[in-house]
Fold this sequence. Notes:
With 256 residues, the chain is mostly helical. 81% of the residues lie in helices and 0% in strands. The chain has one domain.
Amino acid sequence: xxxxxxxxxxxxxxxxxxxxxxxxxxxxxxxxxxxxxxxxxxxxxxxxxxxxxxxxxxxxxxxxxxxxxxxxxxxxxxxxxxxxxxxxxxxxxxxxxxxxxxxxxxxxxxxxxxxxxxxxxxxxxxxxxxxxxxxxxxxxxxxxxxxxxxxxxxxxxxxxxxxxxxxxxxxxxxxxxxxxxxxxxxxxxxxxxxxxxxxxxxxxxxxxxxxxxxxxxxxxxxxxxxxxxxxxxxxxxxxxxxxxxxxxxxxxxxxx
Length: 256
């Protein structure tokens, strides 16, 4: 309960900051709309049989792009203000930081899914299956985004203070999230085809999410503490030295 309470407080702070400028939501939402427009111009003229194969790939490719765009910004406030070490020094469970950041990222992705899924339904006639099974569609989007966020938040924390972190996150995140995205793609195709094994696919996705979240929770403190470790350069060390103090090797008397 203490962990959940701390995570809720941190999440409330994140939401309050987001409601002031809507930085993450507006950026991710605009990017989603742009991709939908490109999909319409490129694939709307295809036959309906081709739509069944195109919709799953377009859906999860968009989520992968929007997800990494969000993850590169989720630790920016701590990086720009250099408050990550102060957050670690606060009497807050490190796991609560992970839960709050993951919940914030998941909320942004679900808002984008609320734009993406109806957009795909309007563009492609085969997307009517989303409207026919809204509960399964919402659960599919939630489970797929949750698996992606579980891995992404962990590595976003590890690269929170690194130089060139955006490029590294792109390089690291896509190979590691490929199994999650591929499984979500297969489940989406089963939903569009009306496969009776869809509940089994959703259950397996839920089990995969639990495994990923458990592994991320075990590794998060190590990754975050390593990212926020002390990094003092020689110039900063010289600035921190008192003016009257000289290095030990320079204070020695020369040998006779």
